[in-house]
Write a structure and sequence with these properties.
23% strand; 4-stranded mixed beta sheet; globular; alpha/beta; 6 helices; two-stranded parallel sheet
């Protein structure tokens, strides 16, 4: 059985389209877990929570994920190391002026809403030292030339969606980032990308095991 959780059902497909072994339900994993989710899973998989962990502290989230695991179960976590996000030009003649401005806007907005991205790079030590999990695997996947272009397209769409959502939700940010200026910024970024500028965030993948209870000594 595969049990998927999300904070809202907006992105769920119609239940008529789901296989019999797939269940989707609404759950905020930062809130207290209902008993029917405690120690019920052999594997818990989570990914891309960087934008929802406030204050750079994932420990409460970690504790809830671990509560969901059966003893001996495995946590697999895929996370981008946005703290080390960077952009590069293919050669010195290609401008990165607008991409640099977009990154400056990213750091300004995320800082304003209390996001810190230092923790994904320390995810394995957090799970081991703070929560007692055994680290089975911890990998960092850096840039490769064959993935630079598709990764850049994905990140650019992600930046744009994030900025547009924040401008709708936060009046102060909307006032600072006027629509005309924002459109000009993203048009400039698009032009630089067409000339070969690329954006990259390393992907962190950590697999950790929840300890089994120790057998009582006779």
């Amino acid at each position: 059985m595969l049990h998927g959780l999300d904070i809202a059902s907006d992105s769920f497909p119609a239940k008529e389209y789901l296989p019999d072994n797939v269940l989707l339900s609404v759950q905020d994993v930062f809130e207290e877990l209902p008993e029917d989710l405690v120690e019920k899973f052999d594997v818990v998989h989570i990914r891309a929570f960087g934008l929802v962990v406030k204050g750079g502290d994932p420990n409460h989230l970690c504790a809830n994920l671990i509560r969901m695991l059966k003893p001996g179960g495995y946590l697999q976590w895929d996370e981008v190391d946005a703290h080390r996000a960077h952009f590069v030009a293919p050669n010195p003649t290609v401008s990165t002026l607008f991409t640099d401005k977009m990154f400056a806007l990213w750091h300004h907005v995320t800082g304003k809403i209390g996001l810190s991205f230092r923790w994904p790079g320390n995810l394995a030590p957090i799970l081991h030292k703070n929560h007692g999990l055994e680290i089975v695997a911890a990998h960092r996947y850096g840039p490769t030339n064959k993935l630079r272009k598709p990764a850049t397209d994905g990140w650019t769409m992600g930046f744009d969606e994030f900025f547009c959502n924040m401008m709708r939700r936060d009046e102060d940010i909307a006032k600072q980032v006027e629509p005309e200026n924002y459109c000009a910024l993203m048009e400039g970024v698009a032009d630089e990308l067409m000339h070969g500028v690329t954006i990259w965030c390393d992907l962190m993948v950590v697999v950790a095991q929840k300890p089994k209870p120790r057998a009582a000594k006779l």
